Amino acid sequence: MSDLVIFSKPFRVMSQFRASGDKLTLSKYIHDPALRIAGRLDYDSEGLLLLSDNGHLVQKISNPQFKLEKTYWAQLEGELSEQALLSLQSGLVLKDGKTRPARARMIDEPENLWPREPPVRYRAAIPTSWLELSITEGRNRQVRRMTAAVGFPTLRLIRVRVGDWQLGSLKPGEQQLLENVSS
Fold it and tell me: Is pTM, for the whole model, over 0.85?
């Protein structure tokens, strides 16, 4: 049994503890030196980040061989087309190979979503749409590359679920400790 921390990573925070120039890191929020990060979340992405004091659990969460599903909400530039949605669902070819099929569906802007600072740039002539995308891989910037490949760049990306763990109502910078989690 081990501890698991569910953390809501704010926008523009590095998913690491060591200093990185003038960029904020997790050390501003998490102070337990026994915790290790289970997977990455890009500097410009927000949402669910898991940390644990158990190396086996960290490996199980972050290693793609276990195919743990990760779910994201993505605000996209433009009105997402049915064809783009079908392409995401069937898998598409990126520079590093074909992606596994994804679960993808259009959603309304999520309720109770915190404002991002700074906000996504508003442009009256260009509408946005929201996508819920679930993948079982963890390639570098995969969701952003997938949405760009189908013609709808990601403006905002929030991870809301990894496996059975969910972000829930945590706001940026908040965390929840789960004790005695089995690996």
Answer: yes
